[in-house]
Amino acid sequence: MKFRKEKYGKRTIYRNDWMEFCTGWHKLNFRISPASYFDNRMQIAFSLGWGQLFLNIPQVRSKYDECDPPRYGFYFYGEGQFWPDTFVICRGRKTKHIELPWCLNWIRTSKLATDQTWMHETRKNRIEWYKSATEDLIWKGTYPYTYVLKNGTVQNRTATVTVEEREWRPRWFKWTTLFAHIRRSIWIEFDAEVGERTGSWKGGTLGCGWELKPGQTPEEALREMEEQRKM
Predict the structure, then answer these.
(1) What pTM was computed for the model?
(2) Using alpha carbons only, what angle is made at residue 201 by residues 198 and 206, rounded to the nearest 5 degrees?
(3) Rounded-to-integer distance, Cα 207 and Cα 191, Å
(4) Which one of 7, 57, 109, 165 is CB 3.0 to 4.6 Å from 184, fit for a cystine?
């Protein structure tokens, strides 16, 4: 019954040959699998909120010896959120995702046009943004951009900036803007690779986004990114 203690980021993991407990908050879940990661023992995993417990049952073994065996049960999911927005039912190798009422659904993507109006893409009005005729209507700003590598090398680039806005609404409240989540940002494309990985097999950055704060101009947001972002 002796446990080994390991640190994994901010979490602590206690494990022995048949049990593992991970500290920290976890979304509610309960799953049974005939095997786990390259381990043919039946596994039961569950969390009631704080802590995640994994039990490997040595008396019950299966034919599975793989990284992703079938699972049965359920779990709540929410990417980057403490509060979940999706309920997932596990049925062997299949899953069924049920969006909860507050799950955010995409409503539109809008881009600033050359006449300072907005071009809106919705589910009923799809826009091919990279079509040449459409690109001619999109506002673009071109600015010099400087990035200094850790070794002191200065990269001088040309940045082409566009402005976009995205809107999401809760699933049960898509008919009103009352609970809408709207994010405005700039999208930047460089004329050559930028950053520490320039010229490597991974490659440097050629395009990225940055939040456009209320009252900021696109160039002011670009200068903020130039000063703060490491690539």
Answers:
(1) 0.79
(2) 45
(3) 9
(4) 165
Write out the two tokens for 193.
């690779």
- DSSP states of the chain as a string? -PPEEEEETTEEEEE-SSEEEEEEE---EEEEES-BTTB-EEEEEEEEEEEEEEEEEEEEE-S--SSS--EEEEEEE-TT-SS--EEEEEEETEEEEEE-TT-EEEEEEEEEBTTS-EEEE-SSS---TTSHHHHTTB--EEEEEEEE-TTSPEEEEEEEEEEEEEEEEEGGGTT-STT-EEEEEEEEEEEEEESTTTTSSS--EEEEEEE--TT--HHHHHHHHHHH---
Backbone phi, psi, residue 190, to 5°: -100, 155
Burial (CB count within 10 angstroms: exposed 0-12, middle 13-18, buried 19+), residue 100: middle
Length of the chain: 231
Percent of the chain beyond pLDDT 90?
82
Adjacent-strand bridge partners of 96: 89
Give 48's strand partners: none
- Rounded distance between C-alpha atoms, residue 19 and residue 23, angstroms: 13
Question: How many Å apart are CA 112 and CA 105, to the nearest integer?
Answer: 22
pLDDT at 209: 96
Task: Look at strands 94-99 and 118-121 and give their pairing.
Answer: unpaired
